[in-house]
Amino acid sequence: MTRPRIVIIGAGFGGLSAAHALGGANADVTVIDRRNYHLFQPLLYQVATAGLSPAQIASPIRAILRRAANVRVVLGRVSGIDKQRRMVKVDSLEIGYDYLVLATGSRHAYFGHDEWERVAPGLKKIDDATGIRRRILTAFEHAESMAPAEERARFLTFVVVGGGPTGVEMAGAIAELAHVALRQDFRTINPREARIVLVEAGPRVLPAFPPTLSAAAQKALERLHVEVRLGTPVSNCDESGVTIGSEHLAASTIVWAAGVAASSAARWLGTEKDRVGRVVVGPDLTVPDHPEIFVIGDTAHALGKDGKPLPGLAPVAKQQGAYIAKVLRARLAGKNPPSPFRYRDWGTLATIGRRAAVADFGWLRLHGTIAWLLWGLIHVSFLIGFRNRFVVMLDWIWSYVTFQSGARLITGPGSH
Questions:
Q1: Is the pLDDT of residue 343 over 50?
Q2: How far is residue 135's CA from residue 150's CA, in Å, rounded to a whole number?
């Protein structure tokens, strides 16, 4: 008798959480991803600012799932889904399914200005992070040895667009790179004279946090000599810099952290989506009229208990992945499914720099060193249990606190 086929598209937090929980189930599970590794995206900005190397925040998918004998991994790019035939199109292959889980994440959104991506890259992949690292480090090199004195200011100006967690973390990390890691490495320039500008269209940074924590985050950024520009959106990005409202700011390095859009899942399914492209799902995270199809993580428009869409956070995706595994195990066993999904919000954290972070647990709000220590412990615990967390923690803490790592390398296209 043929066992049920479960196909999971995407090996992010949600997809891997589901695959782990389905290990040993009476079903054949296939995990499809276009990359062979799972990436811990919350620490990507540290790769982009030379604090960590890619290998410290990524693990091979096959190694992660090697003990789940009923789970196989397929490396490929999904191009479509045939709901009638229950087939997933992967490159030149077709993979059949009885149950389908879409956990395909999100991508950058440039609000109708996709041409800006060429000069203002976002941060979603390892390639993005190493590319931004190359831009940042090369800017210092150009300022040191190639730029006329009057052009050095442009090379030493770094603009981060977007005041959410990613933007705040990027701006703080670039400031620390300039003021700490590179301060003694150059002879012609003083890296501490670098100008880091954080641009947020709204009235405050970290708008999802309480105003008191937003204010604390802004003060921490300003202590790191980050220039915070609020209330005016970026109206243009090009090779010469950015235009903030009507003011042009010359800058050689621009990082985009202002918006995200969902993957192509809604287009593949031909189903209802919200304004950023997320698939609208029911209380059990299934697609309307298709109880065999689940959508989770950044790809799903799922409502929380307050009636608002759940945020695109790793804890949301992990809980959703574990939940649908319970639903599928119940179906496979012929039992009643669990009650509708409810997200348990344990709090939200963001770091600004070393010994500077904010934490909102609802009943408790913290900022400063204590919040930073909590942020570090929680992030280490989230480094998936596939590797020795103790070793990873020691290696990560040493690299992050001292900058003594081999991560300050200029590699890739245009690195010479």
A1: yes
A2: 20
Phi then psi for residue 127, to 5 deg, are: -60, -40
Q: What is the pLDDT of residues 224-265, one digit of tens each?
A: 999 999 999 999 999 999 999 999 999 999 999 998 888 889
Residue tagged active-site, from 94, 169, 176, 200? 169
CA atoms within 13 A of residue 333's CA, in its CB half-sphere: 12
Coil, helix or strand at residue 290:
strand
What pLDDT digit, counting tens, does each position of 262-315 carry?
888 999 999 999 988 899 999 999 999 999 999 999 999 999 988 899 998 889
Helix (H, G, I), strand (E, B) or coil at 340: coil
Respond yes or no: is residue 239 known to be catalytic: no
Q: Which residue has the tokens 């005041």?
A: 163
Q: How far apart are CA 395 and CA 338, in angstroms?
A: 40
Which of 262, 261, 281, 259 shows the shortest CA–CA distance to 271? 281
What is the fold, at CATH topology level, of the domain defined by 114-257+348-402?
FAD/NAD(P)-binding domain (3.50.50)
d(CA 298, CA 392): 27
Residue with tokens 């709000």: 365
For 5-34+76-108+260-333, CATH number out of 3.40.50.1860, 3.50.50.60, 3.30.1330.30, 3.40.50.1820 equals 3.50.50.60
